[in-house]
Amino acid sequence: MRRSMEMLEISEAHPDAPLIQRAAACLRRGGLVAFPTETVYGLGAHALDPRAVARVFAAKGRPLTDPLIVHVARVEDVRPLVRALPASAERLAARFWPGPLTLVLPRSSRVPDLVTAGLETVAVRVPAHPVARALLQAADLPVAAPSANLFSRPSPTRAAHVRDDLGDRVDLILDGGPTDVGVESTVVDLSGAAPVVLRPGAIAIETLRDVVPDVREHVPAAVRADQAHASPGLLATHYAPRAPLTIYAGPIPAALDRLLADAREAGARGQRVGILAAADDVPRIQRADLSSSRLFVLGPRSDDATIASRLYAGLRALDADADVILSLAFDGSGGLWPALRDRLRRASARVVTV
Ligand code: AMP
Ligand code: MG
Known about the structure:
Elements: E1 6-9, H1 17-28, E2 33-36, E3 41-46, H2 50-60, E4 69-71, H3 87-96, E5 101-106, H4 113-116, E6 121-125, H5 130-139, E7 143-144, H6 159-166, E8 172-175, E9 186-189, E10 196-199, H7 205-209, E11 216-217, E12 245-249, H8 252-268, E13 273-278, H9 282-287, E14 293-299, H10 304-321, E15 324-328, H11 337-347, E16 350-353
Parallel strand pairs: 1-8, 2-8, 4-6, 5-9, 10-11, 12-15, 12-16, 13-14, 13-15
Antiparallel strand pairs: 2-3, 3-7, 4-7, 5-6, 9-10
Bound molecules: adenosine monophosphate (AMP) and magnesium ion.
């Protein structure tokens, strides 16, 4: 019999112990618990229970070729899941865990094939969010947790996003408020000769270089939908709203002119237009006086942290009441910019270069 979902508020600073115990018991029984992490909300399941893991794929509509990240409470909990913990992993863990860094390591036979999509590696992370930490400690299990969204949609940064996407497909949602970082963890593959960033994310590559100077950026090759991916974040279309997103790249005044002209034309065709904007561009957009458009302001153009924390909420908000979404390219060097560029590109249906 199908139970219905419960969504319960939980304090980030002082997670309620009885509620954490309830969520932990749900995970031990093979249930699905959505919980906040410092990056995005995760959809958690007992990682060593293939039936629970299968429910994660079914709930998200996620292809079985797309492996999951296993979350644990402490570095020591990684050891049973991997064949070896190389010195580079120990150094990265000491510096960045708990935190938004995922390490890909040769897996042990304990990890179900379903979790790794049959790969000989497993992705592991120790999250920093107090609710995630309390839950992992109480459950005393490795918890497989991809982002708690429907496959290919923007990741959830609020509990309501999880409810909108998954509803009764999840047993319990712990609502710890908006997540902090807003983009996913950085994924580093340590299973080869040199460390490789498979997915840019919350921790900047230049920060990783302090600890692993030889870390390289992954050069994306075309990923076939029927193959297990080195990293699920490598899918060409991912994180996408339903309304097609067009990105305008090039010098800002010209790109913005083109965006506003296209917005006006789409409006004239009767389409509802959503515009994702930097705060800097708001006066110019308001002067354009577009009647049928809705604006979502991400933050100051130079502020990667604010833009990252609002990006997915912005895509979802505009998706709810626009037929098309238009955005300037957001760009900069270092910090969260590579992750933002990557997510916006994957969310987009087309890029117009002015
Ligand atoms: P998400 O839906 O964002 O939680 O995606 C899960 C993440 O798992 C992706 O970003 C991948 O980078 C990562 N991942 C999981 N398992 C592996 C693996 N064995 N090798 C490489 N990446 C993995
Ligand atoms: Mg995801």
